Amino acid sequence: MKPNERHQRRSTAIRKTMDAVSKTMAQPHAVDVIDTAKEYLIELAKKSELFPYEDFPIPEKANETLYKIFSDEDGQNALYVYVTRSGGVYRPHDHGKAWAIIAGVHGHERHYFYERKDGDLTEGPAELVNKGSVVVGPGSAASCMTRGIHSIEHIDHQPFLHLHCYGYEFEQQDTRLEYDLDKGIAVYSNDVGKILDMPLSDE
C-alpha cells in the first residue's frame, strides 16, 4: 500500500471509529457503554497495516512518544498513537475527568487496576487495593471509567505501538493523579512528555 493511500484509508477509519465512540460515550457512562466503545477501538486496532512504524516512528532521542491523531473541536474524545522503543513500568495513575481505552496494535503490555480505599480524589495520603490485571495486545483492549486507576508494565522488550483513546485530550487532564505505592501518597501530575500532532487527510 502506498503511503498516500494508507494515510487516506487511516484517516477514514479513524473518523468512522471516533464518530461511533463519540456517540456511544455521549450516553451516561457505565461499564456496558465503555465496553461498546472499546469494541470500536479494537476493530480499528486490528487494521494494523494502517499503523506501521514507518508512519509513527520512535524519536531517536527518546524511548517513547505520543502522536495525537484525532480530537473533537472541544478537546473531547481524543485518540493517540503511543509508540515505545523498549519495556517500561508506569506507576498507578488516573486520567482526571477522562475515561480511557487502550487497544493493542503491535506488542503486549499488562495493565493492573486499583481502587482507592479512602475514595478521595485529591492529593495526599492514599492507599490502593489491587483489583486484578489484563494483558493488552493485538485484538484486545483495556478500559478505565472516569477516575479509574491503572498501572502499566510493558512485557515485550521490543518496540510496540498501541492506540490510546481518552474522554479528554491530555491538555485537559489537569486533575490527573499519580500514586506512589511505596510512600502511600497521591500527587497531581500531567507530565506526559512530547506529543506530536498528526493531522488527518482532508476528505
Textual characterization of the structure:
This protein has 203 residues and is of the alpha+beta class. It has one domain (3-197): Sandwich (Jelly Rolls). The chain is 19% helix and 38% strand. The protein has 2 helices and 13 strands; from the N terminus they run ααβββββββββββββ. It has helices at 3-25, 31-45; strands at 64-70, 76-84, 89-93, 100-106, 109-116, 124-125, 128-136, 141-144, 149-154, 160-168, 177-180, 185-188, 195-197. The strands form 3 sheets. It has a 6-stranded mixed beta sheet, with helices on one face. The protein has a 4-stranded antiparallel beta sheet with strand order 3-9-5-7, with no helix packed on it. A hairpin with a 4-residue loop joins strand 11 and strand 12. Helix 1 (3-25) runs antiparallel to helix 2 (31-45). The protein is globular, with a radius of gyration of 16 Å. The mean pLDDT is 91.
Cα gyration radius (Å): 16 Å
Stretches where pLDDT is under 50 for at least 5 consecutive residues are none
CATH A-level architecture: Sandwich
Task: Say which CATH homologous superfamily is assigned.
Answer: Jelly Rolls
Query: Mean of residue pLDDT?
Result: 91
Overall number of domains: 1
Number of helices: 2
Question: In one word, what is the shape?
Answer: globular
Alpha carbon gap, first and last residue = 19 Å
Helix content: 10-25%
Largest sheet geometry? 6 strands, mixed
How do the strands of the widest beta sheet line up side by side? Answer: 8-4-10-2-1-13
User: What name does the CATH topology carry?
Assistant: Jelly Rolls
Number of strands: 13
Strand content: 35-45%
Order of H and E elements: HHEEEEEEEEEEEEE
Secondary structure category:
alpha+beta
